[in-house]
Amino acid sequence: LAEDKTLLPFFSNERVIRAAGGAGALSDWLLRHVKSCQWPHGDYHHSETVIHRYGTGAMVLCWHCDNQLRDQTSESLDQLAQQNLAARMIDVIRHAMNGTQERELSLAELCWWAVCHQVADALPESVLRRSLGLPVEKIRSVYRESDIVPGEQTAISILKQRTKNIALPLHVHQQQPPPQEKTLVSIAVDLESPAQYLQRQKPQREEMPVYTRWVKTQKCMTCGNQADDPHHIIGHGLGGMGTKADDLFVIPLCRKCHNELHAGVKDFEEKHGSQLLLLIRFLMHARNSGVLKWKA
Predict the structure, then answer these.
(1) What is the pLDDT of residues 123-170, one digit of tens each?
(2) CA gap 228, 256 in Å, rounded
(3) Backbone dihedral region of 242: left (phi > 0), alpha (psi from -120 to 50 degrees) or beta?
(4) Domain HNH nuclease: where (predicted)?
(5) Which residues pair with 69 in a beta bridge?
(6) Are residues 127 and 194 part of one domain?
Protein backbone atom coordinates (compact mmCIF):
# COMPACT_ATOMS: atom_id res chain seq x y z
CA LEU A 1 0.00 0.00 0.00
CA ALA A 2 2.93 2.36 0.63
CA GLU A 3 3.79 2.17 -3.07
CA ASP A 4 0.19 2.58 -4.25
CA LYS A 5 0.11 6.09 -5.75
CA THR A 6 -3.69 6.07 -5.92
CA LEU A 7 -3.71 6.32 -2.10
CA LEU A 8 -1.60 9.51 -1.96
CA PRO A 9 -4.64 11.86 -2.07
CA PHE A 10 -6.07 9.95 0.91
CA PHE A 11 -2.87 10.04 2.95
CA SER A 12 -2.36 13.77 2.30
CA ASN A 13 -5.98 14.74 3.07
CA GLU A 14 -6.10 17.13 6.05
CA ARG A 15 -9.04 15.32 7.70
CA VAL A 16 -7.23 12.00 7.40
CA ILE A 17 -4.04 13.48 8.86
CA ARG A 18 -6.01 14.89 11.81
CA ALA A 19 -7.68 11.51 12.35
CA ALA A 20 -4.23 9.91 12.50
CA GLY A 21 -2.93 12.31 15.15
CA GLY A 22 -2.21 15.53 13.28
CA ALA A 23 0.75 16.98 11.40
CA GLY A 24 2.88 17.23 14.54
CA ALA A 25 2.61 13.48 15.08
CA LEU A 26 4.45 12.92 11.78
CA SER A 27 7.45 14.86 13.12
CA ASP A 28 7.48 12.77 16.30
CA TRP A 29 7.24 9.56 14.25
CA LEU A 30 10.17 10.61 12.04
CA LEU A 31 12.32 11.48 15.05
CA ARG A 32 11.70 7.99 16.45
CA HIS A 33 12.28 6.07 13.23
CA VAL A 34 14.85 8.09 11.24
CA LYS A 35 18.27 8.75 12.75
CA SER A 36 20.14 10.34 9.82
CA CYS A 37 19.66 12.78 6.93
CA GLN A 38 17.24 11.41 4.33
CA TRP A 39 18.50 13.52 1.41
CA PRO A 40 20.56 11.10 -0.74
CA HIS A 41 22.01 13.64 -3.19
CA GLY A 42 24.38 15.56 -0.90
CA ASP A 43 28.14 15.06 -0.65
CA TYR A 44 28.26 16.28 2.96
CA HIS A 45 25.92 15.68 5.90
CA HIS A 46 26.11 17.40 9.28
CA SER A 47 25.67 15.27 12.40
CA GLU A 48 22.75 17.39 13.66
CA THR A 49 19.32 16.82 12.11
CA VAL A 50 16.03 18.73 11.99
CA ILE A 51 12.51 18.11 10.72
CA HIS A 52 12.00 19.76 7.33
CA ARG A 53 8.30 20.26 6.57
CA TYR A 54 7.30 19.96 2.95
CA GLY A 55 3.65 20.35 1.95
CA THR A 56 1.55 17.96 4.03
CA GLY A 57 4.60 15.76 4.62
CA ALA A 58 8.01 16.12 6.21
CA MET A 59 11.49 14.62 6.20
CA VAL A 60 14.60 14.42 8.35
CA LEU A 61 17.47 16.56 7.04
CA CYS A 62 20.83 17.51 8.46
CA TRP A 63 21.54 21.19 9.09
CA HIS A 64 23.56 21.47 5.88
CA CYS A 65 20.90 19.96 3.61
CA ASP A 66 18.14 21.86 5.42
CA ASN A 67 19.89 25.15 4.57
CA GLN A 68 20.55 24.02 0.99
CA LEU A 69 16.96 22.90 0.33
CA ARG A 70 15.08 25.63 2.18
CA ASP A 71 12.21 27.09 0.10
CA GLN A 72 13.02 24.72 -2.78
CA THR A 73 10.60 22.38 -4.55
CA SER A 74 11.45 19.36 -6.64
CA GLU A 75 10.10 15.98 -7.67
CA SER A 76 12.63 14.25 -5.40
CA LEU A 77 11.48 16.27 -2.37
CA ASP A 78 7.84 15.54 -3.26
CA GLN A 79 8.57 11.84 -3.45
CA LEU A 80 10.47 11.76 -0.15
CA ALA A 81 7.80 13.73 1.74
CA GLN A 82 5.01 11.54 0.33
CA GLN A 83 6.98 8.39 1.12
CA ASN A 84 7.35 9.43 4.78
CA LEU A 85 3.71 10.46 5.03
CA ALA A 86 2.50 7.16 3.57
CA ALA A 87 4.82 5.09 5.77
CA ARG A 88 3.65 6.85 8.90
CA MET A 89 -0.05 6.62 7.99
CA ILE A 90 0.25 2.90 7.29
CA ASP A 91 2.11 2.39 10.58
CA VAL A 92 -0.62 4.23 12.52
CA ILE A 93 -3.46 2.34 10.83
CA ARG A 94 -1.71 -1.02 11.25
CA HIS A 95 -1.22 -0.28 14.96
CA ALA A 96 -4.91 0.66 15.27
CA MET A 97 -5.79 -2.68 13.69
CA ASN A 98 -3.56 -4.42 16.29
CA GLY A 99 -1.15 -5.50 13.59
CA THR A 100 2.57 -6.09 14.02
CA GLN A 101 5.37 -4.43 12.08
CA GLU A 102 6.06 -7.70 10.27
CA ARG A 103 2.56 -7.96 8.79
CA GLU A 104 1.46 -5.93 5.79
CA LEU A 105 -1.64 -3.78 6.11
CA SER A 106 -4.47 -4.93 3.87
CA LEU A 107 -6.68 -2.64 1.81
CA ALA A 108 -9.74 -3.93 3.69
CA GLU A 109 -8.19 -2.90 7.02
CA LEU A 110 -7.31 0.54 5.68
CA CYS A 111 -10.88 1.07 4.48
CA TRP A 112 -12.31 -0.15 7.79
CA TRP A 113 -10.10 2.32 9.65
CA ALA A 114 -11.37 5.07 7.34
CA VAL A 115 -14.98 4.08 8.07
CA CYS A 116 -14.37 4.04 11.84
CA HIS A 117 -12.80 7.51 11.72
CA GLN A 118 -15.45 8.89 9.32
CA VAL A 119 -12.99 9.73 6.56
CA ALA A 120 -14.02 7.03 4.07
CA ASP A 121 -15.29 9.71 1.70
CA ALA A 122 -11.66 10.85 1.30
CA LEU A 123 -10.74 7.52 -0.30
CA PRO A 124 -10.44 7.73 -4.09
CA GLU A 125 -13.27 6.10 -6.06
CA SER A 126 -10.87 3.63 -7.68
CA VAL A 127 -9.62 2.43 -4.27
CA LEU A 128 -13.15 1.97 -2.96
CA ARG A 129 -14.14 0.00 -6.05
CA ARG A 130 -11.21 -2.36 -5.46
CA SER A 131 -12.11 -2.82 -1.79
CA LEU A 132 -15.76 -3.55 -2.65
CA GLY A 133 -14.86 -5.96 -5.43
CA LEU A 134 -16.44 -3.78 -8.11
CA PRO A 135 -15.13 -3.83 -11.69
CA VAL A 136 -12.64 -1.13 -12.63
CA GLU A 137 -14.42 1.87 -14.08
CA LYS A 138 -13.27 2.41 -17.65
CA ILE A 139 -12.46 5.98 -18.61
CA ARG A 140 -13.41 6.60 -22.22
CA SER A 141 -12.71 9.61 -24.36
CA VAL A 142 -16.18 9.42 -25.91
CA TYR A 143 -19.37 8.00 -24.36
CA ARG A 144 -22.36 6.81 -26.32
CA GLU A 145 -25.77 7.44 -24.89
CA SER A 146 -26.31 3.68 -24.62
CA ASP A 147 -23.22 3.42 -22.36
CA ILE A 148 -24.80 5.61 -19.68
CA VAL A 149 -26.44 3.58 -16.92
CA PRO A 150 -29.10 5.67 -15.15
CA GLY A 151 -28.96 5.62 -11.35
CA GLU A 152 -25.61 3.82 -11.23
CA GLN A 153 -24.23 4.14 -7.70
CA THR A 154 -20.75 5.30 -6.87
CA ALA A 155 -18.49 3.20 -4.69
CA ILE A 156 -18.70 5.66 -1.79
CA SER A 157 -22.51 5.63 -1.85
CA ILE A 158 -22.48 1.82 -1.77
CA LEU A 159 -20.04 1.84 1.15
CA LYS A 160 -22.15 4.33 3.10
CA GLN A 161 -25.26 2.26 2.51
CA ARG A 162 -23.58 -0.93 3.72
CA THR A 163 -22.08 0.68 6.83
CA LYS A 164 -24.90 3.01 7.90
CA ASN A 165 -26.14 0.65 10.63
CA ILE A 166 -22.71 -0.19 12.03
CA ALA A 167 -22.10 1.03 15.57
CA LEU A 168 -18.85 2.96 15.37
CA PRO A 169 -16.30 2.82 18.21
CA LEU A 170 -16.84 5.24 21.09
CA HIS A 171 -13.84 7.42 20.22
CA VAL A 172 -15.48 8.47 16.94
CA HIS A 173 -18.52 9.99 18.66
CA GLN A 174 -16.77 11.30 21.72
CA GLN A 175 -13.14 12.21 21.24
CA GLN A 176 -11.13 11.35 24.32
CA PRO A 177 -7.89 13.29 24.75
CA PRO A 178 -4.87 10.98 24.74
CA PRO A 179 -3.28 10.43 28.14
CA GLN A 180 -0.62 13.04 28.72
CA GLU A 181 2.84 11.94 29.70
CA LYS A 182 3.97 13.19 33.05
CA THR A 183 6.16 16.06 31.95
CA LEU A 184 8.15 16.30 35.14
CA VAL A 185 11.93 16.15 35.35
CA SER A 186 13.49 15.94 38.80
CA ILE A 187 17.09 17.00 39.28
CA ALA A 188 18.71 15.34 42.29
CA VAL A 189 21.86 16.39 44.16
CA ASP A 190 24.24 13.55 45.06
CA LEU A 191 26.99 14.79 47.39
CA GLU A 192 28.50 11.30 47.56
CA SER A 193 28.97 10.79 43.82
CA PRO A 194 32.26 8.91 43.30
CA ALA A 195 32.85 10.62 39.94
CA GLN A 196 33.63 13.92 41.69
CA TYR A 197 36.91 12.47 42.92
CA LEU A 198 38.18 11.60 39.45
CA GLN A 199 40.84 13.88 38.01
CA ARG A 200 39.00 13.92 34.65
CA GLN A 201 35.32 13.11 34.61
CA LYS A 202 33.99 11.17 31.65
CA PRO A 203 31.46 13.27 29.69
CA GLN A 204 27.96 11.82 29.91
CA ARG A 205 25.14 13.06 27.72
CA GLU A 206 21.71 13.05 29.37
CA GLU A 207 18.74 12.25 27.13
CA MET A 208 15.30 13.36 28.32
CA PRO A 209 12.78 12.73 25.51
CA VAL A 210 9.80 13.58 27.74
CA TYR A 211 11.29 17.00 28.49
CA THR A 212 12.24 17.77 24.87
CA ARG A 213 8.72 16.85 23.71
CA TRP A 214 7.34 19.32 26.26
CA VAL A 215 9.82 21.98 25.10
CA LYS A 216 8.50 21.55 21.57
CA THR A 217 4.98 22.51 22.76
CA GLN A 218 6.14 25.87 24.14
CA LYS A 219 6.38 29.27 22.48
CA CYS A 220 9.46 30.29 20.50
CA MET A 221 11.94 32.08 22.77
CA THR A 222 12.65 34.82 20.22
CA CYS A 223 9.41 35.61 18.35
CA GLY A 224 6.67 34.10 20.55
CA ASN A 225 5.15 31.91 17.84
CA GLN A 226 4.52 28.20 18.30
CA ALA A 227 7.84 26.34 18.54
CA ASP A 228 8.71 23.72 15.95
CA ASP A 229 11.89 22.19 17.35
CA PRO A 230 13.76 21.94 20.66
CA HIS A 231 17.11 23.58 19.83
CA HIS A 232 20.20 22.23 21.58
CA ILE A 233 22.57 25.08 22.49
CA ILE A 234 25.56 25.24 20.12
CA GLY A 235 28.85 27.11 20.08
CA HIS A 236 29.31 27.39 23.85
CA GLY A 237 31.12 24.15 24.65
CA LEU A 238 28.06 22.30 26.00
CA GLY A 239 28.36 19.51 23.43
CA GLY A 240 31.24 17.45 22.13
CA MET A 241 32.71 16.39 18.80
CA GLY A 242 29.68 15.28 16.78
CA THR A 243 27.55 15.26 19.96
CA LYS A 244 24.63 17.47 20.92
CA ALA A 245 24.40 19.23 24.26
CA ASP A 246 22.38 17.53 27.01
CA ASP A 247 18.62 17.51 26.50
CA LEU A 248 18.39 19.85 29.49
CA PHE A 249 20.22 22.54 27.51
CA VAL A 250 17.49 23.19 24.94
CA ILE A 251 15.26 26.14 24.08
CA PRO A 252 12.08 26.17 21.96
CA LEU A 253 12.42 27.83 18.55
CA CYS A 254 10.06 28.09 15.59
CA ARG A 255 11.31 26.90 12.21
CA LYS A 256 12.07 30.44 10.97
CA CYS A 257 14.13 31.40 14.03
CA HIS A 258 15.82 27.98 14.11
CA ASN A 259 16.94 28.40 10.50
CA GLU A 260 18.09 31.95 11.27
CA LEU A 261 20.27 30.68 14.13
CA HIS A 262 21.95 27.97 12.07
CA ALA A 263 22.50 30.40 9.20
CA GLY A 264 24.65 32.55 11.50
CA VAL A 265 25.02 32.12 15.27
CA LYS A 266 26.81 35.46 15.72
CA ASP A 267 24.15 37.47 13.88
CA PHE A 268 21.39 35.61 15.74
CA GLU A 269 22.88 36.33 19.18
CA GLU A 270 23.50 39.99 18.31
CA LYS A 271 19.81 40.29 17.41
CA HIS A 272 18.17 38.12 20.09
CA GLY A 273 20.78 37.80 22.84
CA SER A 274 23.09 35.00 23.89
CA GLN A 275 21.78 31.45 23.65
CA LEU A 276 22.96 30.97 27.24
CA LEU A 277 20.78 33.86 28.43
CA LEU A 278 17.80 32.45 26.52
CA LEU A 279 18.52 29.04 28.07
CA ILE A 280 18.57 30.44 31.63
CA ARG A 281 15.29 32.28 31.03
CA PHE A 282 13.68 29.13 29.67
CA LEU A 283 14.97 26.96 32.55
CA MET A 284 13.40 29.46 34.97
CA HIS A 285 10.14 29.21 33.00
CA ALA A 286 10.27 25.39 33.17
CA ARG A 287 10.97 25.51 36.90
CA ASN A 288 8.21 28.05 37.60
CA SER A 289 5.82 25.91 35.53
CA GLY A 290 6.54 22.92 37.76
CA VAL A 291 7.96 20.89 34.89
CA LEU A 292 11.46 20.98 36.36
CA LYS A 293 11.85 20.33 40.07
CA TRP A 294 15.08 20.52 42.05
CA LYS A 295 15.63 17.79 44.64
CA ALA A 296 18.40 18.19 47.21
Answers:
(1) 777 777 776 666 666 655 665 665 555 555 666 666 666 666 665 554
(2) 9
(3) left
(4) 210-259
(5) none
(6) no
Do residues 85 and 11 touch, judged by C-beta distance below 8 A?
yes
Give the whole-angstrom CA distance, residue 201 versus residue 276.
23
Is 51 a residue whose pLDDT tops 60? yes
* Residue 296 burial (10 A CB sphere; 0-12, 13-18, 19+): exposed
Is this model's pTM higher than 0.90 or not? Answer: no
Do 290 and 220 reside in the same domain of the chain?
yes
Q: Please name which of 246, 241, 240 lies closest in space to residue 231, comparing C-alpha atoms.
A: 246
State the total domains in the chain: 2
- More confidently predicted of 168 and 240: 240
Measured CA to CA, the distance from residue 227 to residue 258 in angstroms comes to 9
SS (H, E, C) 89-134: HHHHHHHHCCCCCCCCCCHHHHHHHHHHCCCHHHCCHHHHHHHCCC
31 and 82 in a single domain? The answer is: yes
Residues 14, 156 within the same domain: yes
